[in-house]
Structure formats: structure tokens, C-alpha cells
Amino acid sequence: MKPMPAKQILMGINGDEAVAYAAKHALVDVCAAYPITPQTIIVEKFAEFVANGEVETEFVRVESEHSALSACLGASAAGARTFTASAANGIELMHEVIFLTSSIRQPVVMAVADRSPSGPINIHGDQTVSLAQRDTGWIMIYCENSQEAYDSTLQAFRIGEHPDVQLPVMTMLDGFVLTHTLENVYLLKDADAHKFVGRRQPMMITIDGKQVPLKLDPKTPITIGPLQLFDYYMESKLQHSEAMEKARPVVTQINNEWAQLTGRKYGDGYLQPFKVTDADAVILTTGSSAGTARFVTRQLRAQGKKVGLLKLRTFRPFPDKKIAKLLADVPVVGIFERTHTTGSLGGPLFNEVRSALYDLDTRPTILGYYGGLGGRDVTPDHFRTIYKELLKIKDTGKSPRNPIKYITVRK
Amino acid sequence: MTQETPQWRPKLKDIADQEELFTSGQRLCAGCPAGSMARMAMHALPRPKNTIVSQATGCLEVASTIYPYTAWRVPWMHSLFENAPANASGIEAAYKARKRQGLEDDIPDLLVFSGDGSGFDIGVQAASGAIERRHNFLYIIYDNQAYQNTGIQRSGATPKYAWTTTSEVGKAVPGKPTWKKPIALVYAAHDPEYCATASVYHWRDFMMKVRKGMEKQGPAVIVVLAPCHRNWRYPEELGMKMAKLAVETCFNPLWEYDGETRTYTMSAPSMQFVKDPSKKKPIEEWLEPQGRFRHLFRPTRRDDLIQDFQNLVDEDWEFIKRLTEM
Ligand SMILES: Cc1ncc(C[n+]2csc(CCOP(=O)(O)OP(=O)(O)O)c2C)c(N)n1
Ligand SMILES: [Mg+2]
Fold first, then answer.
1. pLDDT above 70 (res A16)
2. A103 CA to middle of ligand 2, Å?
3. pTM of the model
């Protein structure tokens, strides 16, 4: 651990608790949430803060996830800083509201304790559900460990509420691997955290020549959520897209500010390359798998094998140009994703990364690996196997006809 | 039941002087009683300058806020079809939290509008949850007895035998096969602070109920029958008459539930039919003018179905009478 600019408190907590502390430190005005494994500890811990008077948050214990995000949306439109958390079936139930939240441009922050979709019903982790939200227009950040879950959740409020952005942010932490596993996590002191996040400032808009806050306020009545048909809908979509583009530098800027405050930095906020520059084979992955992959990368490097890891942290906005730059000279790339898609050539990570590399003069050979589904343990052997295959392709120059593979699956 | 405080009784003269908060220019069908309903409700607000509206998807929503126009002079938000009470829960929570932090000095009143689609069917869960959590809001469900906005599909509010585009009338089936949900009783059973049924025709009764519901500290629900000439198929100028007949036939009994005393009371417009049952009109008088019930009368008169409808109305009416007996 690097020297720490601000004095921090070391705690042995799990990922869910780390997120709950972040929500507490973020001075959330309204939290509305519904329990679901493996997210439950977040709401339970937060309920504890409420019960002990440690937060000034209005905690709405709604009757469903659909209502959880709907309440957050209403609260946010009324000017509040809002937070919710969910997983799998809960995210799927609120899917309708997820789209709406971003299109109404409310910077709600939501932690997703990633869990596999039903069915068969399964409470353990993979990233299929969160990545299925990729077109909902949210900023999406994947966390490698509990420390990053705390850090990213706090950063999320700053990113989403930035005047240029005004978009909701999802922070993902892998079910059980992070949510339920104790780690050492550095937490900011209350005052330092509060200074970093500040209070939410409403956007100002001009109506009839007057500056009014973009919020539900009887002093300055406005209409939020009107009907837009073919004459305006596309313009709204374009604005949404522009906001996402404007978020690009903001993600990096907040990541840098955070580094100054805490000594912790996650690459440029998007990607964390490890030994990529001269690598013969690179694995790209996201979330907690990156930690395991880094361990293996380090081992293989010690044995003289030229392998590298590219950890993807921010999935939206997708850092396509950065990825292309980093992988331009890498002969073989393997994408390991804990998602499952059928009837398409690979999962969402594979698709997006492959597409990002399309414009390169010489494109790497790219393989996609599905693994760790339904909470199946992602072990160092996964990555040893993948690196072995990638290096063989590099050496023989022969790539497999089907680039998509399942790893550790019984036939 | 004793009356504690003198009740607000709206006078037309006073209303005429009040600012319109639901304004002209909205694009509901000519003669749509849902528009009259919204206008009356807004004129009955105890704190018109301090009220926020949360609105569910439906005719009233699509017709009143077609971007870049809005018919609302209060802060107004539409989010989805089934979540308006949840949305309102959040709005209240935002103001509560910010008031506690000294950032707001008042918590505005909250009014939620939805049609029978959300109020009877897809949004019952969100409404039930919001009432159970005791948020301070009035939920007005305007019941036009079908999903009108999407082209007249049956809902849980559609009565038996009514034609809609998903309860078609054919040789084998004479319209909707089942009766409507007693949704106001379902909400009253949640023991909100206040619950009532109303009619757009009985404007004073409706407005007084809105005022009461808004003044209660806690959840309140009003289900108000608002005819729809596109579905019910009556001449568009007869909307109020259809609403009136629904009360006179006791199809739409008007009553109130008081959460404090946990009692049901028959409202004045319906009370006359308790006092003098001979005034109660046969249901035929309400059914006959409506094209959606045409097959009960033409090509051949179906006395069996008309009688069945009458029995269902009578059963409900007797039940409400028992409920409101003191
Ligand atoms: C989840 C969802 N399902 C379906 C719809 C389509 N839809 C929009 S409004 C509506 C019916 C509205 O009916 P009601 O609430 O009775 O209001 P009305 O239009 O009759 O005034 C439907 C089915 C939707 N918007 N959202
Ligand atoms: Mg309707």
C-alpha cells in the first residue's frame, strides 16, 4: 500500500459492508431498497446506520425492486441524492425503471451485487445480469475487490452528479466472492469523505428567461417525464449519448482526485494494464476475476512467459479507443467473461472488445471464454489454461475455428 | 359519527376565481370526464401552491404533457404505468430528508393520479406498499373501466358483459365474462387514513373528498368513476349523464371510509337510495344507452344477461349498505 495522503481507517469488512459505508459517507438523502442475496448485507448494514442515527438518510423499505428504483427516481427528481442496491432478479424486475432513470437523467447510484439470472435459480455470482443492462444508458463500473467497491461507490456520486454528466451510475461487485468475503478495507474519515462528495447541487435550467432548478419544487413548478414522440424522442437520445461522452474525462478526473485523497488509483479510471506492453498473450477480464488473473500473470512472468492482463473497470462509457491502443501490438487476446449469451458469437465483453479492435491495421487473434457461471469458482488454473492456449496460438500461428469456449464445463 | 371541524364546501363562484392548475390546451377527447376530474381535483387542493403531482401512464398523462407542452402548473412527474405511488414515496422521502437536514422548510402535499389500469391491476402492488408504509399522499384512481389509452382493452375494472377490444362480443361469448374488482374496498381494507368512492357528476361530493384526502396526514385513496365515450359508446356530450346514472342505479355507490374511526359511511348522493329504495333506477337505464352493452339489447333482447347484471349490482349495493350501516 502506497503512503496515504489522508489518514484512513482500516477495517475488516466484506464487500457489501464496504458499499454500505460508502453510501453512509456519501451523505445519501434517500435510500430505497429491497433485499436479495447477495446484496442483502448492504441494506441490512445501512438499516443499522439508520437505526443508530448515524445517517440523516430517509430509508424507504419498499415492497419490491421496481418500487425501490421508482422511489429513488422520484426522490432524485425532487433533488435528493439517492442510492439503491440490488442483484439478479431484482435488477431484472427493475429493468423498466433502469432505462427510465437514465433517460430522465437522474444521477441515482446503484450497487449491483452480481448474481446469476434465474433459472435454474441460483444465488451465486456471474455478471450476466449487470452486463445485460449495457444498453440502459447508465455509467457502469466493475470492481475487483471490496476496497474498489468502497472507492467506486463514493466516486460514482461525483461522476453521476457532475454538471456535464447527470447520469445514473451502477457499481458492480461479484456476488459472494466480494459481497460476503472479509477483506481489509481502508475507509476515509467521515469529514474527508464528506468533503470529497459534497452535497448534490441541482442542475439549473432556463424557463421563460428564468433560471430554475431542475427538480420538483412548488416554488418553481416544472413538468418532468413528458411524452416525446417521433418529433423529439431522437433528440433526447442524442443528448443522452452526448452526456455519456462528456462522462469520459470525468471518470478519469474523479479517479485522479481520489488518488490524491486516498493514494489509490485505478489506472485511468477505465483500464488497468499489467505487463501488457510487450506481451505475446493478454487476458482481458473484469471484476474479481482480474485479481486471480493478475496472480497467475505474475507467476508466469516469473517463469519468463510474456503474458499480460488488461483489467476492464469502466464498461460504460466503453473505452474502445484505449483498448485498441493498448492491444494494438498484442498477437493473441483472450477475453474471460462471467456472462452467458446464446445464439451470438461470444458474450458482451467479447463483442465489444472485438469490435474495438476492428480498425487496427493488424488485429490480434481473439478468443472468448465463458466461465465462472452460477458462482463456479474462478481459479488460477482457469487463467493458466487460457494463457497456455493463447501462447500456443501465438507460437503455431493456428487459431481455432470456433473462438468461443467454455472453461471448466462438463459435457 | 360526529363532525368535528366545519367541512370545506366548494362554491362555484369561488372556484371560478381560482387559478387553473390543470389548464386548457390539453388533448383529451372532447367531453372526456377524466379532464373534468383532474380540473376539479386541482381546484380542491388545500395548498394549491404547495402540491406535487405524480402521474401514472394513461390517457390523462399522454394528453396533458405532450412535449414541449404541459397542462400542469404544479410540479408534475410521470414515470411509468405501475409505479406512481412508489415514485411519490420517493418524492416525500426526499423532502423529509432534506427538511431534517434543514435544507427545506416544508414538505409539499402529494397527489397521485392513475387510471384503472394502474389502480386496479398493474400498480396495485406499488400502491399497496405505499399505503402500508403510511406515506402522506392522496391517490386518485379515475376509473373509466378499461385501458382506454392503448385502445380500449379490458381491465380489472371492466364490468361483466362489457365490450372491449380484448373482451370481444361474438356468437360464443357476450363480452367480458367476469365482474369488476371491488378495488376501493381492497384499498380501504389497508386501513388508510381515508378512502372513498366518487363520481365526476357529483362534483361537490368529489371535491370535498379530495380536500379531505389531501388534508389527512397519511395515505388516502379515492376511486372516481369517469365515463369514456370512446369505449362506452354513448354520445360524447352525455358523459356526466352516464356518471349520474351510474350513481342512480347504484352501480357506483358513493361511500367513505374513515381511518380514524374505522367506519364506512354512505355519501349523500347515494344515501337517498337507502332512504327511499324506490328511487333506485333499474340498471337497464344505464346499460341501454351504452354501445358497449348493445348486445344485451340487440339484435335480441337478452333478459337473462340484463337480469344477471342487475343481480350483481344489487349484491354489491346490499353489501355496501350493510358495510355503511351504523
Ligand atoms: C408496464 C407497461 N405495460 C403496458 C403499458 C401500456 N399501457 C400504457 S397506458 C395503458 C393503459 C392505461 O389504462 P388506464 O390506467 O385505465 O388509463 P386510461 O388510459 O384508461 O385513462 C397501457 C396498457 C405500459 N405503458 N407499461
Ligand atoms: Mg382506464
1. yes
2. 26
3. 0.97
